[in-house]
Amino acid sequence: MSSEKAVQLSDGIMRQDRKLSDGRTISYYDSEQVIREAKDQRPVENRPGLGELRLDALTNEWVVMAAHRQTRAFLPPKELCPLCPTKPGLQTEIPEANYQVAVFENLSPSLADPKAEWELPVLAGLDTPTVDAAGFCEVISFTDDHDANFGSLSLVQIRLIMEAWRDRTREISKLAFIRHIFPFENRGVEVGVTLHHPHGQIYAYSYLPPRVEKMLQVAKEYFAKNGRPLLTDIIARELKDELRMVAQNSDWLAYVPFASRYPFEIHIAPKKFVANLSELSDLAAQSFGEVAKEAMQRLDGVFGIEMAYMASWHQAPVDDGHDVLGLHLQITSIRRAPGKLKYLAGSESAMQAFIMDMKPEQSAAQLRDVKI
Length: 372
Prior knowledge:
With about 375 residues, the chain is α+β, with helices and mostly antiparallel strands. About 20% of the residues lie in helices and about 25% in strands. It has 2 domains: about 5-40 and about 50-210, HIT family, subunit A (2-Layer Sandwich); about 210-370, HIT-like (HIT family, subunit A, 2-Layer Sandwich), CATH 3.30.428.10. The chain has helices spanning about 155-170, 210-225, 230-240, 280-300, 345-350, 360-370; strands at about 5-10, 15-20, 25-30, 50-55, 60-65, 100-105, 130, 135-140, 180-185, 200-205, 245-250, 250-255, 265-270, 310-315, 330-335, 335, 340. Strand 16 (about 335) and strand 17 form a beta hairpin.
């Protein structure tokens, strides 16, 4: 997306863009002045082509066909981790010998830049044409420490990650074919992780995913009726009820949602409504780490084990809903007890109708009871 350059961001954070051997961009985020000049010494390999976008005519939902991803890395041992810094005998995706936060284009992306004029087809049922799977996918490595996890990171490190999320949201939004930007983290083999190194991903879609379409519709209807964003009133209810609160500070609230779908589900939202990550104030970006770190530590402390989870940023689409759809982080874990998982079985998988075996007030109490 960008040539080699350095950019000054908020709170003294510096982004330095460099090129990998195959032409992909890697961006380093540092909290202090560090010169990033290491060259990627790996031989140039051909990158995979674009996948396809096909329409499921039964639901009018787009499905990505990305058969080229079958060969991507799968649970390599620590000594062969592609997200660790490069060292003698190991050339990785990150050429530097150390780093704080690094973001780079995915080697095997589900969605990719079509490099030409591209338009999403008009829905026409069975006559809807198949097109290239346009979009953009990046990997964000949270730290060069292979054995860390998000909850163990320092507040300085979490601030760097937040700045990377904000910056990538701004930068990727400039691509004309992008409609929605989705940063997320998966942790644990139970949720399909293929690399153990602490990292997340950013998927940028050329269409609105079904979940976003639904949330946007509901948010618009609520705003039209009440004149306020729905998330603003949800946060007000959680502050009033207190029963489902997990952690808070002056800028952020972590809570178990009123109608949670998973045994342990935590939402983290800014108390002041914003539509997306790039709209967060520097103050809110700075204070996010306190609440996020506590929430993650409480999640790991419930059973005294590292909980497998999915952490998903929900925000307004690039070109719609900025006055109605609010930013929040959804953390979900399918662990319901030591040695027991909640499987998404018939009702959840086939009907998208979730059934919870535990009230959210109960899981919130368990989370608050954790000693940290």
